[in-house]
Amino acid sequence: VLLIDGEPDGGVSALDRGLHYGDGLFETLAVRDRRPLLLDRHLSRLQAGCARLGIEAPATAVLRREIEVVAATRELGVVKILFTRGRGGRGYAPPEGGRPTRIVLDYPWPDYPRDRTDRGVRVRMCATRLACNPRLAGLKHLNRLEQVLARSEWTDPEVAEGLMLDLEGAVVEGTMSNLFVVGGGRLLTPDLSRCGVAGVMRGLVLDLAHELGLPAAQTRVEAQDLDRASELFLSNSLIGLWPVRRLEERALEPGPVCRRLQAELRARGVLAVP
Amino acid sequence: VLLIDGEPDGGVSALDRGLHYGDGLFETLAVRDRRPLLLDRHLSRLQAGCARLGIEAPATAVLRREIEVVAATRELGVVKILFTRGRGGRGYAPPEGGRPTRIVLDYPWPDYPRDRTDRGVRVRMCATRLACNPRLAGLKHLNRLEQVLARSEWTDPEVAEGLMLDLEGAVVEGTMSNLFVVGGGRLLTPDLSRCGVAGVMRGLVLDLAHELGLPAAQTRVEAQDLDRASELFLSNSLIGLWPVRRLEERALEPGPVCRRLQAELRARGVLAVP
For the CA atoms of chain A, what is the radius of gyration? Predict the structure, then answer.
C-alpha cells in the first residue's frame, strides 16, 4: 500500500523537494501483528526533525491513522514514512505557503537470518566517512548518500553491517544502525552532536539503561575503544539489538548487557521478531 | 514539459532512490532561443559524477535529445536534469540490475533583475556551514539540505546570494553559485576538494582565464581574503557572472577582471541573457 497525502497513488510529483534536494525526513517502523511498533517515539522524532528543518510538522492524528492503515496490511513487515517540504519552485528557497508531502508505504519484512539476535553478526569497518555538520546531526533526513556509498562497499551477505567513522576519525554508527559499546563497566554510544542519526531504538535503549540502573553515556568513541570493548552491539527499530560476534578480524561474544537489554525489549513487546 | 525516462509523465516512482536518499545528480542548464547552453560541459559533468557515485552513466545521445526536446519549448528558460540510481528496495544497498531514472523538465527563466550583471549584487554571509567530505566534494548531487537551510536564512529580495563557509571556516561558495576573488593580481576561486559544487560556469571561467593569460588558482580562501579582495564575483550557468557590489557592510565595485570575463562569455554566446 502506498499513500501520498492520504491518497492511494503510484507517483510522487517530479517537483517534490524531497527528490530535488533531499529536503525532508523519514521514519522506518517495524510492523508486528498488523500494528506499528514504537509509533509514538517515531512520531515524536519526526516532529522534532521538522522543527529543526523548519518544515511544518504533520498533523499527528492524520499521520498516525495513515500509518495504522498501511501497517494493517502486514502481519510482519515494515512501514516507511517520507515527509518532505513539498513541491518547490526551482531554487533552494522554500516557497511561501508550501505544503509538506507525506508518503506512507510498506515493505515486506527483510529476510535477515533469524539467528542474528542470538548468535550475533559480522561487521566491517567502512572506508566511506561521515561529514560533520551540527546543523544536521542526529536527524533522520533524506540526504543519505554517505550511507549509500558505505553500504556499496561490500556485497558479502555474511557481513551484516558496516561501521562508519566521521572525518575526524571518531566511530559514529553503522550504515543503518546505531552502535553500543560496553567497556569499563559502562554502556557507551557515540555522541551524535556532530553527525549521525539518533535512532529511535537507540533512544529507547538509553532510557532502558537509565531505568535499569546501568551506567550509560553518549560520548566520543575512538577505534581503540572498540578494541577494548567487552561487548559491541547494534540497534535499530527493525533489528532490535544485534550483538557483534566479529568486527573485521576480531571475535567477540554476545555479552550480559546486550542480553539483559534484549530481554527487556522483548518483555516490553517492542520487537517485531522477539 | 516533463520527461521521465523519455516518456511524458506526471509522477516519479515513490520508490525512487533520488527521493529516498538523494541518490543521484542534477544539472541546471540555461536555454536561449530554444537551445540549451553549454550542453557538452553539463553532460560531461554528469558523466563524471555518475562515475564517482557508481551510477551507470546515461546514454549521452538519448539524454542530449531529450534535453533538446524540452529546451525547444522555451525561448528563454531553464532545463533541469535529475539523474538518479533508480528504484531501490528498502535499505541503502543499491539493488542488483537497477536502472537509473532520468528526469528532464523545464522552468521559466528566473526573474532576476536585469541590472545585476552590470551593477552587481548584494551578498550576505550565511550561518549555515558546509560539511566536508572529500568523497562527495565537487559533485552536483541531490543531497542539498545545507543549501536549503542556508537559503532559508534570508527573504530580502535585495540580497541576491549568501556565501557559505565550511565547518573549518574556509569560504567555499554561494548557495547556488561559485565564488571568484581577485586579489594580488590573481583570480582565485575556492578549492573544492573537501566540499562544494564544481560549477560548469566556474570550470569555463577557469578555462577562459587560462586562455586569456590571467593568473588563476583554486585555493583555500579565508574570510580575510574577501576583505582584501579588489573584486568579488559569482558564477553559475544561469547568471553567468554577477559582480558583488556589497558583501554585508562592505561596498565593492565591479572590476576589470569580471568585465573582461563577462565580455568573453558574451562573445562566445554562452550567456542566456547577454
Answer: 19
